[in-house]
Amino acid sequence: MSEDKIIKIIDELYEKYGVERIFYSDMETEQIIRGMKGILANLDLNKQKSYTKEDAELIKDIYGMYC
After folding, report:
1. Which of 6, 12, 23, 66 has the fewest CB atoms within 10 Å of its CB?
2. What's the DSSP call for residue 21?
3. Residues 55 and 13: beta-carbon distance below 8 Å
């Protein structure tokens, strides 16, 4: 999966779970990829509802690729 596709997925997850993207909105692609662990942690800490099973698997896959 390309880095741009991963970032798009992260954007969608942030929106779906009601989390503001301010945490990484000013970052370049390379910075987002390097900071993926923190970005995923922010999503998890601030989500407004529980993950669906599919989203949880997707997050685990992204975590495995970049963290």
Report:
1. 12
2. G
3. yes
Tokens of 67: 């963290």
With contact defined as beta carbons under 8 Å apart, do 61 and 13 qualify?
Answer: no
Range of the domain at 43: 3-66
For residue range 14-43, list pLDDT tens digits in order.
999 999 999 899 999 999 999 999 999 999
Q: Are 29 and 7 in contact (CB under 8 A)?
A: yes
Write down the residue that tokens 């999503």 correspond to.
43
Q: What total of structural domains would you count in the chain?
A: 1
Residue 47 CB neighbour total at 10 angstroms = 16
Is there a contact between 40 and 63 (Cβ–Cβ < 8 Å)? yes
